[in-house]
Specification:
two-stranded antiparallel sheet; 17% helix; 4 helices; Cystine Knot Cytokines, subunit B; alpha+beta; single chain; three-stranded antiparallel sheet
């Protein structure tokens, strides 16, 4: 990942030509239009089947790659215990799981220049034992 960022920065590093900033290096990204179908059908409702279920929220930002990012929001502060033991239920907290992803933001006035930034995204929820004082 670090290697990819370094290559991206070297390719799109602002060049100076006669006192003006120029970014004319091509950047090609392969963006998938749809998720892969193999194995996808079985796991697509993972957010509903989990003991710490979550909903997806959609964020759209123009001039960003990717333009659409989905984030997980836990349905409850607690996990659903399948056997109905409510004492255990309150000691298991539902917490979001985060992943850091690289996003590109288009620079204003520079049609082919991008700034790379890391963004922390919630990708699901999981159960954790509550801390006891």
């Amino acid at each position: 990942m670090v290697c990819c960022v370094c290559v991206l920065l070297l390719i799109c590093w602002p060049q100076v030509c006669h006192g003006q900033q120029v970014c004319d290096s091509p950047l090609r990204l392969q963006l998938l239009k749809a998720p892969p179908t193999r194995g996808w059908v079985k796991s697509r409702d993972l957010n509903r089947q989990s003991l710490s279920s979550w909903q997806w929220t959609k964020t759209v930002v123009k001039n960003r790659i990717p333009e659409v990012i989905y984030e997980a929001v836990c349905d409850s502060a607690y996990c659903d215990y399948p056997h109905g033991d409510w004492d255990t239920h309150e000691s298991l907290n539902a917490v979001p799981v985060h992943q850091v992803m690289l996003v590109l933001h288009a620079e204003r006035g520079q049609p082919r220049s991008y700034t790379a930034q890391y963004r922390r995204v919630a990708v699901g929820c999981t159960c954790m034992w509550a801390k006891m004082a």
